[in-house]
Amino acid sequence: MALSSSNFNWKIGPRNISKFSSSINSNNTISLSFSGSVSMGLNLASSSSTRFTKSNRFRNHGSPLKVVCIDYPRPEIDNTVNFIEAAYLSSTFRANPRPTKPLNVVIAGAGLAGLSTAKYLADAGHKPILLEARDVLGGKVAAWKDEDGDWYETGLHIFFGAYPNVQNLFGELGINDRLQWKEHSMIFAMPSKPGEFSRFDFPEVLPSPINGIWAILRNNEMLTWPEKIKFAIGLLPAILGGQAYVEAQDGLSVKEWMRKQGIPERVTDEVFIAMSKALNFINPDELSMQCILIALNRFLQEKHGSKMAFLDGNPPERLCMPIVDHIKSLGGEVHLNSRIKKIELNDDSTVKSFLLTNGKVIEADAYVCAAPVDILKLLLPENWKGVPYFQKLDKLVGVPVINVHIWFDRKLKNTYDHLLFSRSPLLSVYADMSLTCKEYYNPNQSMLELVFAPAEEWISRSDEDIIDATMSELAKLFPDEISADQSKAKILKYHVVKTPRSVYKTVPNCEPCRPIQRSPIEGFYLAGDYTKQKYLASMEGAVLSGKLCAQAIVQDSELLSTRGQKRIAQASIV
């Protein structure tokens, strides 16, 4: 759906027009909605030119006229095998017999992995103590509010239908309505035709994988028929071989696998460069083919697997806080500004305590590191570094990524209420958040959020250099509206968020190095998207890793309780 304050076009698509209704109320508000959908208010006020500044407040609410915008209904994902499996795992924590003496479990890191670990431990009747080094929740989904009250985020986060554990988490917290589902499409920019897009539309009436095959066959702008046929033949082993085949491809890069399967290089150029950058922020000559095949498998095997949703606001408040509230309601604790300085050990090399930079010492029955793998490696005690379990972590290294936010002085017309694949050499995906997200909605000015990747050569460059390069790329995506010199749309302000080490770089032969959540050190556990779980480096992977970590602790609860009692007894003897 393309929207602008000066050219307001509704692209209804597959929606039933008979369900459309409008009304005008006493305060000059026009309400447009579809039955069974969530509505959103739009202010139809004229844009005004504003001087470029990083801190200028620019929103114009001059007109009381409002239009209500809608999102697509939540897809029917609750009956999929993966969703039911995830729901069952969640239920095991709630059904777990209440412990006579709950375990105190200290967890370092309040990203999605740490929050998930704490949530499910609390569900099982134990007491999580969650420590976050920074003053903000979320880890890789963290966000901050600037002096104007606008939010800027660590990354552009998309919630897929094929994220069963994430979708269950939303349901368990009662916040399903916070996901804004978009039409079932994938939209790619056309570099050879600046300003134009090519779509893969998944028909709602067809089951999987037919809907995905239909979407590919119907698109004649990116791939020719001979290329589609060769691509389909090349994919047959993955379709027939299942998960075992997918995991066996970890040793090949995307480019190597394509050549091996006889798939034309143009398929990689047209589709998989964009897909590789979206999945792991690197190009297909570096990315393990296993990562692509896992995504394709999820998208093709589930009818709504590739359907996308945006969160309706900033992640710390709209997603992380409900988890924190749930944890606290069950007796758990969450502490910000609590950075781990050192993992202190007992004589037998088990964990004695977490020493914080503020001097506090935290002791518990079990310990979890839910920080990124690069931080874990810095915290590893010398006694542990020779253990093969930890030695393998050397291969896992976070990939740099940059998230760019630009507020413009006008509403851009050449965009959609959806995620867009830029197919730019410098940019990965982007979205006009003033359309896609309720909290960020603005009818008069656009705010583009863009993932700048690969970022290895840019992470040390100045914000100004990054913005200049971004604007040059945007001039190709918006040739009639944006120019690199700002002679057209002007920047009102921007934020650049650099993450030198984000998700682990999914290069070939990483899979054997990913650790299970239960470490060989008794009472010490790991959580994070880099740990062993089937969704790799993603929000779904982080949430699932937390559930698996909590599951391991619950399974070990008797051992951990006995260990704690022995420690207390020994201390009293001394």
TrEMBL record:
Q: Does the keyword Chloroplast apply?
A: yes
Q: Which Pfam families match?
A: Amino_oxidase
Which molecular-function annotations from GO does this UniProt entry contain?
A: phytoene dehydrogenase activity
Can you state the subunit structure given in the record?
A: Homotetramer.
Q: Report the subcellular localization.
A: Plastid, Chloroplast; Plastid, Chromoplast; Membrane
Q: What does this protein need as cofactor?
A: FAD
Q: Which GO terms describe its biological process?
A: carotenoid biosynthetic process
Pathway(s) annotated for this protein in UniProt: Carotenoid biosynthesis; lycopene biosynthesis
Q: What class of enzyme is it?
A: oxidoreductase
Give the record's keywords alphabetically: Carotenoid biosynthesis, Chloroplast, Chromoplast, Membrane, Oxidoreductase, Plastid
Q: How is this protein named in the record?
A: Phytoene dehydrogenase
Q: Which GO terms describe its cellular component?
A: chloroplast thylakoid; chromoplast; membrane
Residue ranges occupied by any Amine oxidase domain in the UniProt entry: 112-553
